[in-house]
Every structure is written in C-alpha cells, then in structure tokens.
Amino acid sequence: MDAEDLNRTYLRFAHQFLESYDDPKKLAIVGMQTRGVYMGRRIKLVMEKELGFDIDFGVLDVTFYRDDFRSKLKMPDVKVTEIPFDLYERDVILIDDVLYTGRTVRSALDALMAYGRPRKIQFCCMVDRGHRELPIAPDFVGVQIPTYATEEVRVRVKELDGEDAVYLVDGDDALNDNFASKE
Amino acid sequence: MSKLSTNKNSTDISPHEGYEFSQKHLLGLSDYSAQDIQYVLDQAVSFREILNRPVPKVPTLRDKTIVNLFYENSTRTRLSFELAQRRMGADVVNFSAGTSSTKKGESLKDTIRNISSMKIDMVVVRHESPGVAHFLTQCVDAAILNAGDGAHEHPTQALLDLFTIQQVQGSIKGAKIAIIGDITHSRVVRSNIIGLKKLGAEVVLCGPKTLMPKFIDQMGVGISYNLEECLEWCDIAMALRIQLERQDRGTEFFPSLREYHENFGIKLEHLERYPDFKIMHPGPINRGVEMESEVADHERAIILDQVTNGVAVRMAILYLLSGGTRI
C-alpha cells in the first residue's frame, strides 16, 4: 500500500466513524503507541473538517498491561500515555496499525478501563493479518492481508519513517532488518 | 498491495535508541552511567502520569513479590516504596527490625536467606551500616534496591531529586544547585552529588565547617560558607536535614540550633532578595532550623512535588529492575 491507498483508507475510516455514531460530540479517538497515534491524528483531521469542531484525542501506551513482556530479555520502553478528557459515557474508537494476535488490544482494553467507564469501545486497524490468539475482532479494517507467522507487517508513517506505506516483510528479511519494528 | 522491502532508513524517535538498561540492582548512583540515570528519569515521566489516573494502578508487577527490609526508621521512603509497589500490583511484605527476630539475635545474612527461601523477587533495604545493600547481592538472587545505607548512598532519593530538578529546570545539564546543611552525615548528598555531576549540573555545598567533610571537593563540587552568595547564585537550593539526634548526643557540631538557623537557615527575606531560586528538602523538615516555617510552605518550595515524584521514580526503577526472563 502506498500513500495514496492509505489516504483513501483514512478518508473511509473518517466517514465510517461519522456514519456509525449519531452523536459525534460523544466520540473520542484513542491512538495506540506508536503508529496508531499518527493514524488517529490523520483520521481526526478529516473528521474535524467535516464536523467543524474538535474531537477529543488520546494517546495510549499499553506496556504496563502486556502479558508477554517478561518473556523478553529487555524490559520494553514505556511511552507516554495521555488521555486529557473524561472517558465516562463516551464512545471510544481505539486505533492501532496492525491487528495480529489480539493481545495488544486486550491490554489496551484493560488500560482504558483504568481511566473510567466508556459507553462503548470500538477498534479500528489499518491491517488485519490474522492469527488471532484471543476472541477479538476489529470493527473497522483497512485491509485484510493473509500472512504467515514468520512474516512481518510494517505500517510506516511519514512523521516517523519518512513515508506513508505498508510493507509485508518475509521471515529472513524480518530477522536481518533492524529498524524499529512493531511488536 | 504488498511489496518486499529491505529499506532501513528509520528515523530515531528516542534518544535512547539502541541503548539497553542492563543494571540488575540499585546499590548506588556510582554504579550507574549518566545514560542509565537519564533513562530511569525519562521512563519515570510515564509513571508519573499513572498517579493522576482515576484508577492509579497497573498490573505490571503482579507476578512479583517484594520485601521491604527496614533496619532503620523511615516514613517517606518506606511509604513511597510501598505505594510504588502496590501501584504496580506487586505483593509486598514489610519487615522492620524493631518487631522481628533481629531482636532475638538473628544475623542479617540469616534473615535475608530465610526471607529469600520464601521466594522473593526483589528486596528494598535500609540499614545503618554502609555497604549492606552490596552485601545482600552476594547472599541472594533477588534484585536489591538500596533505600539508604549509613552515610553512604540513598540512590532513590537522589533520583527523585534529579527528576524534580529536571521537571523544574527542563534539563539537569547546566543547572546550578546549592546543597545546604549537614554534608558530613548525609547519604542523600553523596548520591545527589554523584548523580548531578554525571548529568552535568553545577554543585556548590554550603554549611558550617564542622559539617563539611575534608576532601569533599574531590567530587568536583564547589564549597562555600556563605549562604547569601549561594542563594544568589543558585537555581535550586536543596536544604538538608540537621540531624537533631546527633546534636543531642553531646557530639555537637555547632553551638546551637538558633545559631545554625541564623547562619544557614533560608528565610523569607532571602526569597524576596533573590527572586529566582526554588527550594527543595528531602524531609523531614525541622521548621525554624533549615528554613523558616513560612519558607517551607511558600510556593517556591517544591518539597511536596519531590514526595509525589518519589513514588513515580520508584515505580520506574522497580519496573526496570524487575527484568525479563534470561534466555
């Protein structure tokens, strides 16, 4: 997927969100560190243009809630979490780049609950690559890509990676490649 | 739709890219590199945020059991550690020497080996003898955190001071810090000097000559016996507690508390005369000795911020030392 494909998908997401919620004032977008944050901001911009008012936006880091960090040698970096509004009775759309095992989303649900009790949480991802290990399904999907477990899906955003694109990297390359990858 | 890529030009987003925190214990800041210290401080920012959440609790350490081994009295440090541990979901056991088998004559080594047989992952220890934390690393497998050993080091206090300075000044590099009071008996000051110097701050010590150790200038700090000139110079004045218990024991280092206050106590008039510096104190404060009571409650005193930050910094270091599985 290149920048143009991604932009079309952002546009679609924005309109899907607007379509499925009758009260956009209750809507809040939460982007998951790291790539989900930048995706969320793009969608937010499109929606705000349409609506004419600001949408609440939060940033979530789920490191504290992960169930797999002990299995690695290095403790993962903790990134910033910032949810500057009350989640109570809000409709939250959670955004991440890749949906894989579903464990990150599970952690994110736990993390969100620590901030209050939203009325509804929906999940949106750019790439659904399959291989779920938990009973979790996305509400909004950019593309579904069937993958092997040895492959890696990389969503790249201009702000961090210099380009907007999605790559499917095969096993050997994934091992040789040492740039920051999605866990 | 998908293409293969061997593109490697990723942009650095973190100043710690490629860095790995590899410490197993926290015995003192002398064992930590500048980058280790900066990394702990940067991680602590995220932990600070947890404390403001409606549910200020995360399950990160729920698989860990931590013992707090306190051979010396403490309010702030012990409470702060315990809160940090509970906020991260750890199981906590507390031990204080007064109510334990130490009274029956059990040695430190036996105590720790017994406790360790109960499957403990981390030990927080305070003891009146320097080097106890280091000794414990040789007795047990657990991660050891020094919560003050004699007049040696008190690393978590220094880390929380550094964090607070960073919060106020933006950066520790180049910050001008005056440390005022009982330099000789303070473990806080030793850890602070090490940490501050490693991160590039300028440090001046100030206090009565009797409480200024010989050769302390070898640590790369300035020495002054004039409070006024220190307060004029500094960004932050860190007052240390005058240890009244030492004053009472007949080993007197200055004629009277009143005289100490006259010469080295921070007063309201100083705040007016020098409008820039902020005031820190590791606690507990002797009001009317290290500073006037009004100074302690002044908006330029960031003493209570230090306490709040203490929990965040301790959460960060507990998290980092809790470790992944060795493969």
Structure description:
Chain A is of the alpha/beta class and 183 residues long. Helices cover 31% and strands 24% of the residues of chain A. Chain A has helices spanning 3-20, 35-51, 103-113, 158-161, 171-176; strands at residues 27-32, 56-60, 91-99, 120-128, 140-144, 152-156, 165-169. In chain A, helix 1 (3-20) crosses helix 2 (35-51). Chain A is globular and about 45 Å long. With 327 residues, chain B is α/β, with parallel strands linked by helices. In chain B, helix 5 (155-169) packs across helix 12. Chain B starts with 33 loop residues before the first helix and ends in a 5-residue tail after the last helix. Chain B has helices at residues 34-50, 76-87, 108-117, 132-139, 155-169, 187-198, 227-233, 244-248, 257-264, 268-273, 293-296, 303-322; strands at residues 65-70, 91-96, 122-127, 143-149, 176-180, 202-206, 222-224, 236-239, 278-280. In chain B, strand 5, helix 6 (187-198) and strand 6 form a beta-alpha-beta unit. The A-B interface holds A 1, 34, 61, 63-65, 69-75, 77-82, 110-111, 113-116, 143, 145, 154, 160-162, 166-170, 173, 176-180 and B 1-11, 13-14, 16-17, 20-21, 43, 45-47, 49-50, 53-55, 57-60, 63, 88, 316, 319-320, 322-327.
Fold blueprint:
The complex is a heterodimer of chains A (183) and B (327).
Chain A: H1 3-20, E1 27-32, H2 35-51, E2 56-60, E3 91-99, H3 103-113, E4 120-128, E5 140-144, E6 152-156, H4 158-161, E7 165-169, H5 171-176
Parallel strand pairs in A: 1-2, 1-3, 3-4, 4-5
Antiparallel strand pairs in A: 6-7
Helix pairs in contact in A: 1-2
Chain B: H1 34-50, E1 65-70, H2 76-87, E2 91-96, H3 108-117, E3 122-127, H4 132-139, E4 143-149, H5 155-169, E5 176-180, H6 187-198, E6 202-206, E7 222-224, H7 227-233, E8 236-239, H8 244-248, H9 257-264, H10 268-273, E9 278-280, H11 293-296, H12 303-322
